[in-house]
C-alpha cells in the first residue's frame, strides 16, 4: 500500500475496525442460529463492542505504528485492544449477571472471525489508488533537498512541490539547476505563507549536512506557521519541538510539531465532540432562545454575530457568539476591559458567565471547533503575539475549543500583558502535547463543576 494512502486511511481505522468487529459478531450469530430471530441481548452486545472498539483500540496504541493499515501487521498491532474489548464485554456481562443469555459458541465464533474481519478492509484498502494532492514548499536547496524533490515528483503525480527556499548558510543557487522553482530565502518564509496567492499544505525541511544552521534560527522561523512540518533527516539535527517519525511515499520524515491528535485519536475526539455538542444543543435550546430574546430586547441589533478566528492548522474560521456589545462599536477589535462602555447590560452578564460562547456549539457540530482546546483569539491579537512569542502559532495546530486547560487553570479574560499570554500559551501547549480522551473528560468535568465565570472576564 502506498504510504500516503495508508496515512489517510489511518484516520478512519478506528470506525472501520469497530464496524468489522460488529460484522464478525453478526456473521457468528447467523452461523450459530441460522433460523432464529435476533434476541435482544445480542444487538446490545454488538453496539457495546462498537463503542468499546472506538475508544479502546486507539488507547492501546493500535494505530501508532506506520503500518497499522497493513493486513497482517495492522491486525497484530490491534490485537491487545481487541482482547481488551472482549474482556470488557465479558466483565460487563458478569456484572449484569447476563452471561447465561449468550451462546458460548457464538462468542467463540465472534472472537475467531474478528481476526480475519479486521484484515478484510485492510486488504481492500491496499488496492486503492492514491488521489489526494499535497502542495509542498521545500526548505532547502542543497543536494538532500534536490534529491527529495526529485523523489517526490517521480513517486506520485499528486505531489506538487511549488518551490524551494534556500536555508541560511547554503551556497547561492545562481547557475544551479533546481528540480523546482526557486522562491527566495528562508527569511522570506513568513511573507510567502501570508501572501494572497499562498496555497501551501506542508513544509518540508531538508537541510544539507554541510551547512551549519543554528537551531534557534529554524525554531523561530518554523514556529511562526501552523502548517505541518516534515523533516527529511540527515539525523544530525534532532533537537526541535515534539517530533514523530513518519513514512510518506517511501521517504522517512520527522514531523517536528506533531500532536497526538494528528492520528486516529483525532477521529475519536471528533466523534465525541459532535455527539456531545448535538446533545448539548438539544438540552440547552430553551436557554439559547431565551438569551437570544434578551439580547434583542436589551439593545438594537442581531442576537448572534460571527467573528474571524484561526482554526485548526491556522485556517480562518467564523465562530458564532451572542452579541454582547452595541452594534455601532463592533468594529473596535480591542479586548474588552472592566466597565467597558461598548458592552451592553445583558452582555456584561453573558461575558462574565461565558454564556455568550454557547453558540459555538454549532461550530463544534460543523467540525470547525472542539469542545476542548485552546480558546480562539482575535486575528489582530494573534498577529501581535506571534511576533513576540516564538511558539505562539503552535497553539493553532489543533482546533480551538469552547473551554480548555488554560481556562480551568485560571487563565480567562483579557491578556493585556506578555506574561499573561505566555502563561496561557504554556497551558495550551501542555494540552496539545499531552492530549488524551481522559484529559478532555477531566477538563469538561471541571468546567461543568466549577462553572465558566471568572474575575477577569469582562
Question: Could you characterize what this model shows?
Answer:
With 458 residues, the protein is of the alpha/beta class. The protein folds into three domains: 3-125, no CATH class; 134-258, Rossmann fold (3-Layer(aba) Sandwich), CATH 3.40.50; 265-450, no CATH class. Helices cover 46% and strands 12% of the residues. It is built from 15 helices and eleven strands. It has helices at residues 3-10, 13-32, 41-59, 73-95, 104-125, 143-155, 189-193, 215-222, 265-298, 345-353, 360-366, 379-385, 405-408, 418-433, 437-450, and strands spanning 134-139, 159-166, 182-185, 202-205, 229-231, 244-248, 251-255, 304-310, 316-322, 370-372, 401-403. The strands form three sheets. Strands 3-2-1-4-5-7-6 form a seven-stranded mixed beta sheet. It is flat.
Characteristic key phrases:
458 residues; alpha/beta; Rossmann fold; 3 domains; seven-stranded mixed β-sheet; two-stranded antiparallel ribbon; 15 helices; 11 strands
